[in-house]
Amino acid sequence: MRIDELLKGATKRLISVSETAQLDAQLLLAHVLEVSTAYFYTWPDKMVESAEIGGFDGLLERREQGEPVAYLLGHQAFWSLDLEVSPCTLIPRADTERLVEVALSVFEAKKAHRVLDLGTGTGAIALALAAEWPNSRLVGVDLIDDAVALAQRNASRNQLNNAMFVQSRWFDALNTNQLFDLIVSNPPYIDPCDEHLSQGDVRFEPKTALVADNHGMADIEHIIQQAPKYMMPNAYLMFEHGYDQALPVQQRLRQAGFVSVESFQDLGGNDRVTIGQYK
């Protein structure tokens, strides 16, 4: 079958399950054929072998069941990086790049920093900052051993040697003599009763990386309470959080003595990142 015919049929199959059906079909076929998506615009009339069609159809069936494209491909672009992904942790999303942007804008005048990434997952945030700040030292922690191993592989995959990853429940494996200029986190922040947990790609992602008690605020509150023990004077704490959580996050930071508290919007115009400075 011709490439353009194959993609047309695949797009129709995915329309009911994906808002990006055409792109999904292109990415999956490019993966099977081991080409870039640009190839399809140059050679739309190329014939695809039956064995390759069979592999493509298997991926389409899994996508029709809602399995995320990133898990099917095994990797995901984030910032300037290409990251291996796995069902053991969350898929990096474009909204999280906003946290990287905020960190870079706050610290752009400094030469070197010690940075801690709490709940690092794939290592996306830590590695993006490591790439931008080659003279800095990044530490990423995660509760899940498989996620720590994944982040380490992503450091090697992207040839970044200024980031290390350790297994820890938040600060538990760290010493209070390890002080950081910046602590960043994309922690679980979804209410356990949120209806979106049963919709879309998040159905396939680990709930432990998504859900927190107290209306999604429990882990954020814990981090705010413990963070000052690990922060240099004038250091910053930065969170990604839910679209409706900016005000409570600001309140918790101020109650804990943080100053210069501010929130930043994501690409959709929602408050997505909140920061505070430790005095």
TrEMBL record:
<dbReference type="GO" id="GO:0102559">
    <property type="term" value="F:peptide chain release factor N(5)-glutamine methyltransferase activity"/>
</dbReference>
<keyword id="KW-0489">Methyltransferase</keyword>
<feature type="domain" description="Methyltransferase">
    <location>
        <begin position="110"/>
        <end position="251"/>
    </location>
</feature>
<dbReference type="InterPro" id="IPR025714">
    <property type="entry name" value="Methyltranfer_dom"/>
</dbReference>
<dbReference type="GO" id="GO:0003676">
    <property type="term" value="F:nucleic acid binding"/>
</dbReference>
<dbReference type="InterPro" id="IPR002052">
    <property type="entry name" value="DNA_methylase_N6_adenine_CS"/>
</dbReference>
<dbReference type="InterPro" id="IPR019874">
    <property type="entry name" value="RF_methyltr_PrmC"/>
</dbReference>
<feature type="binding site">
    <location>
        <position position="142"/>
    </location>
    <ligand>
        <name>S-adenosyl-L-methionine</name>
    </ligand>
</feature>
<keyword id="KW-0949">S-adenosyl-L-methionine</keyword>
<comment type="function">
    <text>Methylates the class 1 translation termination release factors RF1/PrfA and RF2/PrfB on the glutamine residue of the universally conserved GGQ motif.</text>
</comment>
<dbReference type="InterPro" id="IPR029063">
    <property type="entry name" value="SAM-dependent_MTases_sf"/>
</dbReference>
<feature type="binding site">
    <location>
        <begin position="186"/>
        <end position="189"/>
    </location>
    <ligand>
        <name>substrate</name>
    </ligand>
</feature>
<dbReference type="InterPro" id="IPR050320">
    <property type="entry name" value="N5-glutamine_MTase"/>
</dbReference>
<feature type="domain" description="Release factor glutamine methyltransferase N-terminal">
    <location>
        <begin position="5"/>
        <end position="74"/>
    </location>
</feature>
<feature type="binding site">
    <location>
        <position position="186"/>
    </location>
    <ligand>
        <name>S-adenosyl-L-methionine</name>
    </ligand>
</feature>
<comment type="similarity">
    <text>Belongs to the protein N5-glutamine methyltransferase family. PrmC subfamily.</text>
</comment>
<dbReference type="Pfam" id="PF13847">
    <property type="entry name" value="Methyltransf_31"/>
</dbReference>
<feature type="binding site">
    <location>
        <begin position="119"/>
        <end position="123"/>
    </location>
    <ligand>
        <name>S-adenosyl-L-methionine</name>
    </ligand>
</feature>
<keyword id="KW-0808">Transferase</keyword>
<dbReference type="GO" id="GO:0032259">
    <property type="term" value="P:methylation"/>
</dbReference>
<dbReference type="InterPro" id="IPR004556">
    <property type="entry name" value="HemK-like"/>
</dbReference>
<dbReference type="InterPro" id="IPR040758">
    <property type="entry name" value="PrmC_N"/>
</dbReference>
<protein>
    <recommendedName>
        <fullName>Release factor glutamine methyltransferase</fullName>
        <ecNumber>2.1.1.297</ecNumber>
    </recommendedName>
</protein>
<feature type="binding site">
    <location>
        <position position="170"/>
    </location>
    <ligand>
        <name>S-adenosyl-L-methionine</name>
    </ligand>
</feature>
<dbReference type="Pfam" id="PF17827">
    <property type="entry name" value="PrmC_N"/>
</dbReference>
